[in-house]
Specification:
Elements (H helix, E strand, L loop, with lengths): L1 H4 L4 H30 L14 E6 L7 E7 L2 E9 L10 E8 L2 E6 L3 H4 L3
Parallel strand pairs: 3-5
Antiparallel strand pairs: 1-2, 1-4, 2-3, 4-5
Length: 120
């Protein structure tokens, strides 16, 4: 098409097209691909990241058994199987802290808020 619209030789048109293609590639990479790489946010997490996190019991944890805890992670909330580290029942709705993880099971304990201790 450029061959019909201009009087440039085929060699110059090929050089011009290759230059335009390389410039387009560079601009696309510099202003779209590279910023996207650094802005990427992962919703994934490791179970070890949950140690020390505060969660809420969604399914009552029996003294010797398993329940479920919802914990806030960097990617949102996650529900995980949990057991009481102290071997006491922890009712649904209780606030717990994750102390350890064994075999993909969170070992939790009741979490007492500092402001609650002064009111007793």
């Amino acid at each position: 098409m450029l061959n019909q619209l201009t009087e440039l030789s085929d060699t110059y048109l090929v050089i011009w097209a290759m230059t335009a293609a390389m410039l387009s590639f560079f601009l696309l990479y510099a202003f779209y691909v590279r910023p996207t790489k650094t802005a990427e946010n992962s919703a994934g997490f490791r179970l070890d990241d949950l140690k020390g996190k505060i969660g809420e019991v969604t399914v009552t944890i029996p003294a010797r058994g398993y329940g479920e805890v919802m914990v806030l992670t960097s990617g949102g909330h996650t529900n995980q199987i949990a057991a009481s580290v102290n071997k006491v029942e922890i009712p649904r709705g209780s606030t717990v802290i994750v102390l350890d993880i064994q075999d993909h099971i969170l070992l939790v304990s009741m979490h007492h808020h500092p402001e609650e201790e002064g009111t007793s």
